[in-house]
Amino acid sequence: MKHYFTTNGERNFGPFTLEELRAQSLCATTLVWHCELEDWTEAYRLEELADLFEGEVIPPPQIPTTQPINHTDEYRPPMPSSNLGWAICSALFCCTPLGIVAIFYAAQVESVYRRGQYAEAQRLADKASMWATVSAVLGLIYIVMYVLIMTLTDLV
Amino acid sequence: MTRKRWWIGAGIAAMLVVAAVIYYVYDPATMPFPRCPFLMLTGWQCPGCGSQRAIHALLHFDFAAAWRYNAMLVLSIPYVVLLLVSECLGRRGQGRLYRVLNSEVMIWCYFALVVGWWILRNVINI
Ligand SMILES: [Zn+2]
After folding, report:
1. Which candidate in A73, A81, A86, A88 is best for mutational testing of the B interface (most B CBs within 10 A)?
2. Higher pLDDT, B126 or A151
3. Of A24 and B93, the one with more pLDDT
4. Quick one: pLDDT band at residue B90, thresholds 50, 70, 90?
5. I want to staple A90 with a disulfide (CB 3.0 to 4.6 A). Which of A19, A56, A85, A99 is the partner?
6. How far is CA A120 from CA A16, A117, A127, B12, in A?
7. Inter-residue contact A4 to A21 (CB < 8 Å)
8. What residue ranges do the domains of chain A occupy?
9. What is the distance in A from the centroid of ligand 1 to the CA of B15?
10. What is the interface pTM, i.e. ipTM, of the complex?
11. Is the pTM of this model over 0.80?
12. Which pLDDT score is estimated for A51?
């Protein structure tokens, strides 16, 4: 004797005997399963239930609501510049090791972008640029101060 | 936007020319050019130490001296120039040169090279 189950998509009901199942007010599209079925099957497709829905108009299957959202390719922003050239220059010219931090961030831009984390890639690129700029500004301030102090001490 | 970029490019080019003239005329090895703050504070050389003298040497086509002052700088200049060229060629996904130069592997290698250079020059004093 077969045991039948029905489902509403969230909860399963059963087991029922065929008589119990037929006694329920099944819809043609109610999903039914028993151990000989591979998957949930609409009630009207089952031989032993088909007569219940004779003459009924079978509604078309529902369009699946969980369509894969595939916007990523359409909305892919261009890869942010890694600002590597800027980072190298600041590392080698400014005599503050902060430029190395800039290279460290520049190195990660590509892989993060490839993983589709576009905002994060942009953030890393901005960080690279920021550290290079900090390094350059500090270097510039240092040079100006240095020249000022040298000229002042010369005057004194 | 492109106009703004053009002005930034022109500004950088002008500063480079001024810097080149200064570094061509004055020799940082003999003139009281600013000393490296990192070196003064810690006693260790930073990756960029010697780059001013190296540039002076390069502007006088003395590559051997430049190499002695800062080998990393000499190695890096072609890379930076290529980066600049690739940036101009466009990087809207098609620029193959840009992709290679900015690839993760490339930058990490360069990063390791700089850090290695930084350590090495303080260990064997170059
Ligand atoms: Zn230094």
Report:
1. A88
2. A151
3. A24
4. low
5. A99
6. 54, 5, 10, 28
7. yes
8. 4-53, 84-155
9. 21
10. 0.78
11. no
12. 85
Contacts of B93 in chain A (CB under 8 A): 78-79
In B, what residues contact A, Cβ < 8 A?
A: 32, 34-39, 46-49, 51-52, 70, 72-73, 76, 79-80, 83-84, 87, 91-93, 101-104, 107-108, 110-111, 114-115, 118
Q: How long is chain B?
A: 126
A12-16 β-sheet, strand order: A12-16, A4-7, A31-33, A41-42
Interface mutation vs chain A, best among B46, B94, B96, B109, most A CBs within 10 Å: B46
Residues 6+ apart with CB under 8 A from B44: B38, B122
Please tell me the distance between residue A156's alpha carbon and the centre of ligand 1 in angstroms.
28
Residue B33 has pLDDT above 60, yes or no: yes
pLDDT of residue B112: 92
Residues from chain B that touch A79, judged by Cβ atoms under 8 A, are 91, 93
pLDDT at site A67 = 52
Amino acid at A57: V
Residues with Cβ within 8 Å of residue A152, at least 6 apart in sequence: none
User: Contact, A43 vs A27, CB < 8 A?
Assistant: yes
**Which uninterrupted H or E stretch holds A81?**
none
Regions in chain A scoring below 70 on pLDDT: 61-75, 95, 156
DSSP-based three-state secondary structure for A7: strand
Is B35's pLDDT higher than 60? yes
Residue A60 CB neighbours (<10 A): 7
